[in-house]
Amino acid sequence: MRRLGIHSFVWTGGQTQDGLEMALRKSAEHGYRTIEFAYLRPEKFNLDQLAKLAQSLDVEIGVTMGLPLDKDISSEDDAIVTAGTAMLADAVRAVRDIGGNKLGGILYSAHTKYNRQPTKRGWDNSVAAIAKTADVAKQGGVDLVLEVVNRFETNLLNTAAQGLKFIADTGSSHVRLHLDTFHMNIEEANPAAAIRLAGDKIGYFHIGESNRGFLGDGVINFDLIFDALLDIGYKRDIVFESFSTR
Question: Residue 145's CB: how many other CB atoms inside 10 A?
């Protein structure tokens, strides 16, 4: 079932339990039926309390994150890949424990601007780690969605076509793409065509302006975006992502 949602960063910096609970209440108050949280560390937040509040408000929770360099599963260092794979498994379990429905974001590499091209070995390491993570996610009832972002935030998946190649390489039916209009506006020659190309492999969708501001004050043609989503019969969550309350 499709739900419209909002990123918690619209309401709060996301660093405290009180802040996340406030974001849940604000989202419900404004009619949103899903909220996106950044990476939830179980030692920092009371996940059970957040889960109960979300359930009482009828608000679904999704979580997105990016990997740090020392846990980059696209690395050629086996120890780093192992650490990243463990971090992803922990993140999946946290989403499960909070009653969330998805883990997304830059799960396949570090969230950084690389000064090098990706390597075949790094690609293969990432594919294998995501395939393992997909098995954990499927067992936990958590969707796994890989966000395709611009070249300044990863060197691995910058277009929907690259994302499709990657998920095909995993061999898993549980891995889908997480597309975002802000990033597509930078990297795709035709964002609407990219949506149609990805089709039913899209598992999550972000709407955001070209300047991360209010919808309509940038250059993105949302009529074309939503026409494409209708054409592919998209029925999953759509979330507005902004990192400012202004």
Answer: 27
Confirm whether 209 is a catalytic residue: no
| Annotation says 147 is catalytic | yes
pTM: 0.95
Q: How many CA atoms lie within 13 A of 239 on its CB side?
A: 32
The catalytic residue among 36, 147, 153, 209 is 147
For 106-142, what is each residue's pLDDT tens digit?
A: 999 999 999 999 999 999 999 999 999 999 999 999 9
User: pLDDT by residue (tens digit) across 220-230?
Assistant: 999 999 999 99
**Catalytic pick from 36, 153, 188, 241?**
241
Q: Dihedral of CA 34/67/9/51: which sign? A: positive
Phi, psi (5° rounding) for residue 2? -75, 130
